[in-house]
């Protein structure tokens, strides 16, 4: 079941993530020594239990096989907002990025498996934390994060079906390197109170009338 956002809320969230991911992409660009271009964020809220089927509609290359996901949990000091931030690529795209990070453009992917976990974790740390730092400014609250965790498995194992009433804020973002096109997705998993608070803070930041 989809949970609808109003047009103003969707536009405001999209602009917030556009700002946040733009800053993160600039930092990541320095690491891979190549310009990173990002597409306009596509914002959608879906029931948590429907996440896997929704991912099937996102056309991630390699989705039917294995995905690479880097995730971190964040919360405000007072625990009023809790979220898990996910950066998701196809496994091949994730390994391609690692190869660029290691400066080994010609290295066969099967030769960097011992280094990929650390490199992927560093990638997630740069992109996710860069994004969350900007969002913290927009939200007006400090966001405390844990260490990044890396997983590589089919979508159904990354996001097993759940009975809980949680929701998923799906922010689809395309990442483009000059040498190759890589599509990544940013997901924010949160409960309804956290999502409501996030929408309220984003509306306030952009000066939107609460009654509009």
UniProtKB/TrEMBL annotation:
Q: Which SUPFAM superfamilies match?
A: CheC-like
Q: Does the keyword Hydrolase apply?
A: yes
Q: Which Gene3D superfamilies match?
A: CheC-like (3.40.1550.10)
Task: Tell me the CDD domains matching this sequence.
Answer: CheC_ClassII
GO annotation, biological process: chemotaxis
- Tell me the domain of life: Bacteria
What are the alphabetically sorted keywords of the record? Answer: Chemotaxis, Hydrolase
Drop me one GO molecular function for this one: hydrolase activity
Which parts of the chain span the membrane according to its record?
Answer: none
Its protein name is: Chemotaxis protein CheC
The species is: Inhella gelatinilytica
